[in-house]
Amino acid sequence: MKSKIGIIATWTSIFLNIALFALKYWAGVVSNSVALLADAWHTLFDSVSSLAVLLGLKVSNIPADKKHPFGHGRAELIASLVVGILLVVVGFNFLSESVMKFKERAVFNYGPIAIWVTVASVVIKEIMARYSIIIGKKLKSNSLKADGWHHRSDAISSIVILTGIFLGGKFWWVDSVLGIFVSLMIFYTTYRIMKETISVLLGENIEPDMRHEIESIGHDINGNLFLDPHDFKMHHYGNHSELVFHIRLPGNYSLSKAHNIASKYEARVEEKYAIGVTIHVDAIDGGEVE
Fold first, then answer.
1. Pick from 115, 111, 107: nearest CA to 172
2. pLDDT tens readout for residues 106-137
3. Quick one: three-class SS letters along 60-123?
4. Integer Cα distance of 268 and 101 in angstroms
5. pLDDT digits over 147-157, tens only?
């Protein structure tokens, strides 16, 4: 059910982005505005990125198999990287075009069409952004949240262009400068998407509160001996996460006793956080403590 909600949200984004692209491109051609044309192509690439998100959502729901024992959830993260790469390409393209227009002192002519199309874009894209981010948080989907921020960057760039429309009659360079600003907005959005996605792919440490709670659970299991949980590594696979960490037990504990303590600890943490847990036992010198 959750994946269906995400897929519906993504298809909605695709159709709305294509419609907005057509409107913005038309307004950009009529106005001879590089900023509007850049904004139009930014919107079209929202559709391309949404297709990548859609593919990631579908692949991530494929069950685990022999080759992929943790499932296919990281397909979503790959989709987020694709979104980021596409944004970089778009950003560089319009940055160079805006600089060229600035050098050529290109003439533009904003009119009522540009105003109404830009206002419509701001409203629609912000609604799409909020919807995608809310759904992404509910589904714990990085790619949907990335798509939401992509929509929001488009809305912000449209607001900037709208401001420029009202200043365009006074300053010949407004359109070129706005084109450069939109390009920088695209780069910033790319940074946000790539930073979060790459961090998850590399593996992350756990939050301090979670660490303290896990230590507390360890005291409940073996209160007279501090198990010293350490070397935490969290791995995310879409909706499924795996936590790996070490504990220390006396070296003269029997294998069976050490296994039972670790298994009990794993079960308690799994129940608390609804994640997979694997514990590695380190042997320490010293007598057995009962």
1. 107
2. 666 667 887 888 888 889 888 988 888 888 88
3. HCCCCCCCCCCCCCCHHHHHHHHHHHHHHHHHHHHHHHHHHHHHHCCCCCCCHHHHHHHHHHHH
4. 63
5. 787 778 778 77
